[in-house]
Specification:
The chain contains 20 helices and eight strands. The strands form three sheets. The protein has a four-stranded mixed sheet with strand order 3-4-5-6, with helices on both faces. A two-stranded parallel ribbon has the order 1-2. The protein has a two-stranded antiparallel sheet with strand order 7-8. With 462 residues, the protein is an alpha/beta fold. It has two domains: 163 residues, NAD(P)-binding Rossmann-like Domain (Rossmann fold, 3-Layer(aba) Sandwich); 252 residues, N-(1-d-carboxylethyl)-l-norvaline Dehydrogenase, domain 2. Helix content is 58%, strand content 7%. The protein starts with 5 loop residues before the first helix and ends in an 18-residue tail after the last helix. Bound molecules: 6-phosphogluconic acid. The site of 6-phosphogluconic acid (6PG) has 13 residues, from helix 8 and helix 12.
């Protein structure tokens, strides 16, 4: 393992705990010392430099990188090309951009070195106790490490959350889309929290109990579970809920934005993931928001509907469920289109299967999604699956009502509303794109097709 940050160290300890001998190296020698301390009693060693690390490995060697994506990954790979021998395998387990992965695989092939781009999800805890693993590259190279990956991956009903994703950058592309869905789900939950807190005037502890309750039903998921946990936590300085004390500017390392950009390039609509990226950008501009807030009165909070808080919470739960399904649907369609375009050979049922455990977007809904793609592997949209379309139908009315609460109140609900409008648009047979076509033909003679006969038409005398 090159890179002994918390992720690298924890993954290596996981490897060693599963009976594989493992060695690690980090530029920062203190991290090597930490590895030895944490791995006492296990077959782990720490090397002082890269040549020393490589000399400890059986040939052909397997070297995994868990270093920051981008230039540092390239620098380490360049150093390894000098030290490795043909037949060695380099695995990039970071959140690398898929185009970098394609470039690195082709480059290393010219040196006789194997390369796998592997998405790993589950954060620091997942790395230690079992992540979800998304490997891409040449299948025979994957087979070399398959036993190890199966041993360290999370298990759901004894099935390891790892599967060969496909050729070249398939693994990193799937991980990127995983993160895009992660952004969407987090934003949806943040909007639900905002509505409960500001519109329903619920204290954090009560909101935490609602999330914990949702986690017992259809919305059972890691992100709902940790939302309950973080809202319960008290700040040790002020005694306030710690979430209240956290500055409202969201960070991002880029994978959500990459998902949006790739969807634009591939012509796939993923508005809820886009909305989540956009909201992180708006959140980051705190100074502008503060100035703009002084100029506007966004109105009063909406009145509670008959039935009171319980009814409002039931409707909100339904809206979040609809928005979650729409987010998965957008991500899955993007994967399907990318698989055709880049010839990855993705198996969407397998992807849903390995996302059920270990990763950040794990949820009960992924079981339904897996079944949908098992029944119909080339399903173009999850909204056509009989079970999921019924689930959307069940929540639609409540979801629309919750969206009106966002519209009528000062609380922005960009992701929940965008997911609803995506669903409505996708289920509308006749959209007003006829007017757009007429406008295009008017100003640019771009022509249009007709509803009543084949061919291409232009109106001369608009
Ligand atoms: C995971 C996470 C992990 C990381 C994100 C955070 O699957 O384990 O997605 O990869 O926490 O990259 O991304 P942002 O910093 O962009 O929120």
């Amino acid at each position: 393992m090159v890179g002994l940050g918390t992720m690298g160290r924890n993954l290596l300890l996981n490897v060693a705990e599963n009976g594989f001998g493992a060695a690690g190296y980090d530029l920062d020698v203190r991290k090597g010392a930490l590895l030895l301390e944490e791995g006492r009693g296990l077959d782990v060693s720490a090397a002082e430099n890269l040549p020393a690390l490589l000399s400890q490995l059986a040939t052909p060697r397997t070297i995994m990188l868990l270093v920051p994506a981008g230039g540092i990954t390239d620098t380490v790979i360049e150093e390894l090309t000098v030290l490795c021998e043909p037949g060695d395998l380099i695995i990039d387990g970071g959140n690398s951009h898929y185009l970098d992965t394609d470039r690195r695989e082709a480059y290393l092939a010219t040196k006789g070195l194997g390369f796998l781009g592997v998405g790993i999800s589950g954060g620091e805890k997942g790395a230690r106790t079992g992540p979800s693993i998304m490997p891409g590259g040449r299948r025979e190279l994957y087979q070399r490490v398959e036993p190890l990956f199966r041993a360290i991956a999370a298990k759901v009903h004894d099935e390891p959350c790892v599967a060969y994703m496909g050729t070249r950058s398939a693994g990193h592309f799937v991980k990127m889309v995983h993160n895009g869905i992660e952004y969407a789900m987090m934003q949806i939950l943040a909007e639900a929290f905002d509505l409960m807190n500001r519109a329903f005037r619920m204290p954090y502890e009560r909101i935490a109990r609602v999330f914990a309750d949702w986690n017992n039903r259809e919305l059972e998921s890691y992100l709902v579970e940790i939302s309950a946990a973080v809202l319960m936590k008290e700040d040790y300085i002020t005694g306030q809920p710690v979430v209240e004390m956290i500055l409202d500017t969201a960070g991002q390392k880029g994978t959500g934005g990459w998902t949006s950009r790739s969807a634009l390039d591939l012509g796939v609509a993923i508005p809820t993931i886009d909305a989540a990226v956009t909201m992180r950008q708006i959140s980051a501009q705190k100074h502008l928001r503060r100035m703009t807030a002084e100029r506007f009165d966004l109105g009063d909070m909406p009145r509670m509907r008959d039935g009171g808080l319980d009814e409002n919470l039931r409707e909100l739960e339904a809206a979040v469920r609809g928005a979650f399904i729409a987010s998965y649907a957008q991500g899955m369609t993007l994967l399907q289109v990318a698989s055709q375009e880049f010839e990855y050979g993705l198996n969407l049922a397998e992807i849903a299967r390995i996302w059920r455990g270990g990763c950040i977007i794990r949820s009960a809904l992924l079981t339904d999604i897996r079944e949908a793609f098992e029944a119909q592997p080339d399903l173009p949209t999850l909204m056509l699956d009989p079970d999921l379309s019924r689930q959307i139908g069940d929540v639609l009315e409540d979801w629309r009502y919750v969206t009106t609460q966002f519209v009528e109140s000062p609380v922005p609900g960009m992701a929940i509303a965008s997911a609803l409008f995506y669903t409505k648009a996708a289920a509308t047979e006749r959209l007003p794109a006829n007017l757009i076509q007429a406008q295009r033909d008017y100003f640019g003679a771009h022509t249009y097709q007709r509803t009543d006969k084949d061919g291409v038409f232009h109106t001369d005398d608009w």
